[in-house]
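ligand=DGJ
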Amino acid sequence: MPIEFDPKQQVFHLYTDGMSYVIGLIKDIYLAHYYWGARILTVHAASKWRFGQRPNTPTPEYPDLTLHLDTLPQEYPTHGRGDYRPPALGLTVLEDGVSALKLAYRGHCIERGKRPLSGLPAAFVTDEAQATTLTVELGDEAVGLSVELSYALFERFNLVARSAKIVNAGTRRLAVETAMSASVDLPHDAYDILHLWGAPLRERMVERQPLAPGTFRFGSTRGASSHYHNPFFALLRRDATEDTGDVYGFSLVYSGNFLAQTHVDHDLSVRAMIGIHPFQFRWILEPGETFQTPEALLAYSGEGLGGLSRMLHRFIRQHVMRHPFGVTERPILLNSWEAMYFSISEDRLLALAERAAEAGMELFVIDDGWFGERNDDTRALGDWTVNREKFPSGFAALAEAFRSKGLKLGLWIEPEMISPESALYREHPDWVLRTPYREPVRSRHQWVLDLSREEVVAHLMGVIDALLASAPIAYVKWDFNRYLTDVWSRALSAERQQEVAHRYMLGLYRLLAHVTERHPHVLIEGCAGGGGRFDLGMLQFMPQMWTSDNSDAASRIFIQYGTSICYPAIAMGAHVSSVPNHQIGRVTPLGFRAHVAMSGNLGYELDLTALNASERAAIREQVRLYQEIRPIVQFGDFYRLVDPFVTRDRASWMFVDEARREAVVFYFQILAEPNSPVRRLKLKGLDPQALYEAPELGFVMSGAEWMHAGFALPTLASDHQSLLIRLKQVP
Ligand code: DGJ
């Protein structure tokens, strides 16, 4: 994956087989953006930009009247010298209040491999040959500021991982107010933006809308990436579709407050950026100190949105999820929550485990309610010792009992939280995130621990180490059921209080790094009230996420479809739950629920002891089937076939294994239609030359026929019906 510097044109060409990303220097000073898109073989920098005089526009290189920052496409723009668009970097010299910056090129280096980011999750390589990194140093001599922009290019991926390191190289104190992870100025064209928004129980709804002049921004200021907006967006050329056209993806590797922003200016160019949200953010840099931004992944696809998704899915499995979880199959689990809520006990769980084992499940997860005085959600968060009244034998013995049935043991925790009614609060009332003025706001009756403080993080490391040493625990479900309020830390001075939200994230990442290094084989599933922190920062440590607290299969079709835009199926925890559904009361057939859940990481979350023999037999068969198709679902390529956000009443998607020998197709009829038209389903991603047999349908066709001519779907007579069709190449 070469990165080449042409000293004559002062141009950096970052390219893979399918992509070029071209930046360069203007007047030896400004780092400009020339091109990003399909691979080009030659670069002629001067043809990419037109200089000329413009009315009423500042000219920072006077007497040259032709250079204007307000229209120059730049890589890390600042404010104050004639660029009136949103800046990537904003800071103030505290001594005198100066904030107008001039970042000028100082040097660069190109090296093999990719370095980790200090204190933050980031895409990684397992072998130096997998990436090449360009670092461009910019600086403002007068301010005493240095900025290192990092661009890592990965083998076989049309993607650049970008981040910025801000260094106070001078003698005066600086306050960083805006520090985006990446910013790109794309030339004038008609673009749409696609982003994922929603709310708890309705996460990652797909929204595509045209970009128009002005600023469009969304983000989170909740202290977590959130259920409401996801730290991802795509710019699509207006004619791009699911399968064709240019699409640019921006994904932030961060789990806290974020801002995603596009700005279409008077010249119709588009500035797109993503990074930590500047609202209530201000980071003081003493002389010699450094601020590292999170990383952003900038991905390009010339094969539509589907091509972008598939590339991101592969990339996340190989370079984001901690090794080896991106390449190892995930266990089929039974979770106790919707089966029993807080009414858990050793006896009840053993009876449930018996049924789970009979069905062939592989992991038993004890959800909330196993610790301290936790009999409801008003108390005991922080008291992470097993409740011996509920579990007289303790977890070591219970794990052994599960093991003898072929089940591993998993446990729920919510370590970032504290209940006002807890031993931990009685001992450390000062560990709560709160201001000195008043009692902090409660949410789900609980408060948040101040993870910006070293001693709090150290305490949690000890608690989790002890828990994981107490029994063979193979899996942890890491919950986070409320957002931050009263963000203030007694450990920091007044002028540093706007660092707390980011310091909280750094504390959390330190904790997660410790836990995952000490206990590398424990699979952690992130939760955050179901899908509230579904982001790449979390996926680094927690390679699967409880996708939503909404386990209704019909709702899940939308949620999982939206999530698939930028996250792989292996990341999506998806459970079969009971009916009427506990969140919205809908009744759907067991087979339909299973097909939706099999499209992600299959689990069950219902009381198996309350089911009849035929339901139990059906579940046994589902588990067996999923075990067969699991490698294709978890490691295959994903193709979206029918978009429920368009049809509202049906959806379809499919998985194809890497060698294109096998595929699994899912079709969902959400609402039935009387006397419906004959619908043909056309598949994708197959080898056009090969013959594929579909035993469920009873016919054999070439890949080309499956894809171009398709097949007539059988009539599905009622609501919530589904098909699972397997395709196998005929030798
Ligand atoms: C919220 C989660 O999303 C649920 O799955 C469950 O774990 C509860 N918390 C437990 O309190």
